[in-house]
Amino acid sequence: TIKELKPSDELEKIHQLALDNQLAVVSYRLPHTPEVVTLLQWKSQPAVIKDILSLEGKSGFVFCPFDNSSHLPIQLIQPDLIIRGNSFENTGIPHPETLEGTAHGSEKLLHALPYQASQKEYMQQVEQVKSHISSGGLDKLVLSRISREPMPEHFQPTRFFEQLSQAYPDAFVFMLYIAGTGL
After folding, report:
1. pLDDT at res. 67
2. How far apart are CA 102 and CA 25, in angstroms?
3. Rounded CA gap, 160 and 157, in Å?
4. Cys bridge to 75: 2, 46, 96, 126, which one at CB 3.0-4.6 A?
5. Backbone angles phi, psi at 83, to 5 degrees
């Protein structure tokens, strides 16, 4: 008998294909929506962007570090394929030359670790954000903190993504892989 693939089985195979071949991939689910969208880029590496203003006129999925002094660059996935649920779309998006090399081109990306703020630093940042919001400088800001956890044995990223999507229906949930940056 032929086993029918469940949507999660198909998504898991797509993710594994991307990871095995070091292809840029992102799957995401918008708040209050059941549909998962997956973007795959294989014709080129994601564009490395110098600053947010360089994104004008471009489309795709932007991966930007929270810390603007980070050694990790802003990267733009311009998909060759978009999968909405189980529907495949050819994007027709042009693939401009990478602005300053690619994730593969920078060895330092492989070893860069994200900055970890102490509890005291984090609380100081919270106070600064509250001050900016009170003064009218910002309408909204989401401040996050990195927490390093050991990866469980037999970890399955796709299953984890799906569990997060189910547990947090009001959140934007995504899983991203870019070679040289990581998962």
Report:
1. 66
2. 15
3. 5
4. 46
5. -120, 115
SS3 174: strand
Q: Is 124 helix (H, G, I), strand (E, B) or coil?
A: helix
Which residues are bridge partners to 41 per DSSP? 24
Q: pLDDT per residue over 40-69, tens digit each?
A: 999 999 999 887 788 888 889 998 877 666
The DSSP symbol for 135 reads T
Q: Name the strand (E) or helix (H) holding 45.
A: none
Residues 33, 15 contacting (CB under 8 angstroms): no
What's the sign of the alpha-carbon dihedral 126, 30, 82, 89?
negative
- Beta-bridged to residue 29, according to DSSP, are 36, 173
Nearest residue to 151 via CA among 160, 138, 162: 160
